[in-house]
Amino acid sequence: MSKKVLVLPGDYIGPEIMAEAVKVLDAANARFGLGIELEYGLLGGAALDECGVPLPDETLARAREVDAILLGAVGGPKWDGVERHLRPERGLLAIRSELQLFGNLRPAILYPQLAGASSLKPEIVAGLDILIVRELTGGIYFGEPRGIRTLENGEREGYNTYKYSESEVRRIAHLAFDLARKRDSRVCSVDKSNVLEATVLWREVMEEVATEYPDVELSHIYVDNAAMQLVMNPKQFDVMVTGNMFGDILSDAAAMLTGSIGMLPSASLDQAGRGMYEPCHGSAPDIAGQGKANPLATILSVAMMLRYTLASPEAAAAIEDAVSAVLDQGLRTPDIHSEGTTVVSTTEMGDAVLAAV
Amino acid sequence: MSKKVLVLPGDYIGPEIMAEAVKVLDAANARFGLGIELEYGLLGGAALDECGVPLPDETLARAREVDAILLGAVGGPKWDGVERHLRPERGLLAIRSELQLFGNLRPAILYPQLAGASSLKPEIVAGLDILIVRELTGGIYFGEPRGIRTLENGEREGYNTYKYSESEVRRIAHLAFDLARKRDSRVCSVDKSNVLEATVLWREVMEEVATEYPDVELSHIYVDNAAMQLVMNPKQFDVMVTGNMFGDILSDAAAMLTGSIGMLPSASLDQAGRGMYEPCHGSAPDIAGQGKANPLATILSVAMMLRYTLASPEAAAAIEDAVSAVLDQGLRTPDIHSEGTTVVSTTEMGDAVLAAV
Ligand SMILES: CC(C)[C@H](C(=O)O)[C@@H](O)C(=O)O
Ligand SMILES: CC(C)[C@H](C(=O)O)[C@@H](O)C(=O)O
Predict the structure, then answer these.
(1) Mean pLDDT across chain A
(2) Mean pLDDT over residues A67-85, rounded?
(3) Residue B127 is labelled as binding a ligand
(4) For residue B237, which of B123, B112, B127 has the smallest C-alpha distance?
(5) Active-site residue flag, A248
(6) Structure pTM?
(7) How far apart are CA B5 and CA B278, in angstroms?
(8) Ligand nearest B73 Cα, by number?
(9) Taking CB atoms and an 8 Å limit, are A250 and B227 in contact across chains?
């Protein structure tokens, strides 16, 4: 039975890192007889340049048909001047929303080989393994009404709406609890329920869903305290679950704790477990075209895709082991370079993983 | 000319740390002939227990009359069960709003004597000195409509409104630029203008106000990237200015970078420079009544009050120097204790500062 994967390389370093990830995926495909067929599409700035919109109908139509999507990265200064509704990020937000990819998994893992790369003291981050589960299709990112209006006194006001319904919270809660069961069975829900009504309901529904998971421990933390605790003692967390906006902020902070955001993959899943996979990092315009980009987060996104959506855990493990092997060999792209290791280019890193698969 | 200060000790460790701060304020008052008169009032849980509301009319009336307010900390588990509109935090939010204390200054400074207390590597945080300027009376904290409603399909939805008008952004912008002039003349404005319209206007107004400060450099950063950069390389920032919600999160993260949140004061100013001063930390229910609380943040809040609102920079400097001196003597409350230093109680720490003033 053949499986289809839509590849969306995106902008700036997107195509560079994607080329390496596709190499590795092809190799796994052949070695494990996965029967995966690749299709290519446009998203973000690349789509805007070619088709005049950041999410072309054709990309969306294909995205709905395939089993999984592999995304590089979108956006960058080239499109700073375009109208707001045409910006590359809009394409990303639209595909998340159209496909109802509500469950965003963002692991923050410290690779032992890269322990030195963190800005935190080794004892604070050694062995770090957090999974942030971010709600991705609701909250203030998509809430209506929104816009900029002129008030009666003549001045302008910008406004957005932060909202969550019970069913939106319930489905992300279930995802977080299910994932926690495969880990250390602890869920910490992040809200600001001492101030925001939207998160009062969030907390209530989390409590309600928790009764169905008596084996999983649920705790609650205010978002400001969560940001502090991530800096002070990140290892206290197992799964953190939160809304779209808080998840955006906390997952980036958590990823950076590891010092190796160039290593971290992510998954965005729908109710059926179909998903879009992409690196946690962005399109890095400053290093595009120089062979400096780290392809490992995209390669690890391939592994995540094989595990979560394509039900090929063996192939996933082979890729993850290959990444670990090249790190053991001392190969490093510039972002994770440290004394005593060998700097390699994007392509050389991809080739090394390929050889190890 | 006499000046009036309203003292609001608040809850849990609030009265303990306030007792020490008042000792030090009394001493400075006598030594520098400041003519300060103290009044006492109730806020938060203490007010709720006594008067049935977290911000009694009498407290608010006095607060409007005095020159400055000194606050301990409010809130705690004792009042977990009370109705939302009566919770201690509501008193804090109400006093901020009623007095239009829109400008919240939260310094994140690393005391050289405490360099080891940070969870970050010494070279990342040595010499850290950031000032976060948080808008405190607008944004999603106060935006209407808000609440929990039942949708047509029968399920509930929690909702809040994030909004900023031009004039609200303009006044916080001016405050940030004015403060930057007294420092390194760099303002970094934090928004999420790639997603939120409320912050599109925010960015526009920041640009507009910047034209009046050609000597100050303005840059912009998305909030997710700001959280990352604070972890990776916090020393790149001078003044950061942002809205109420993002400021809540980022200022706590920044404070924690120093490892000594028990050391950090804050100011909340109105248009005329009158203000409320309080430690950055909370009411710490877990250590209340044990003599373990660190009074230095509250003592340094007194210094900040003398400098910003009461125009007594000499007295402010004397208190700050005294704090530095006791740190040099190796005296530490448990939160900032490290090898080779002497653990002292809340009272002993207060007495040591008093002796040094
Ligand atoms: C590009 C931007 C719209 C996006 C977001 O805020 O969700 C990004 O920061 C992310 O986290 O994937
Ligand atoms: C107690 C709470 C309402 C408050 C806030 O969120 O503003 C606190 O976290 C703060 O930062 O002063």
Answers:
(1) 97
(2) 95
(3) no
(4) B127
(5) yes
(6) 0.96
(7) 13
(8) 2
(9) yes
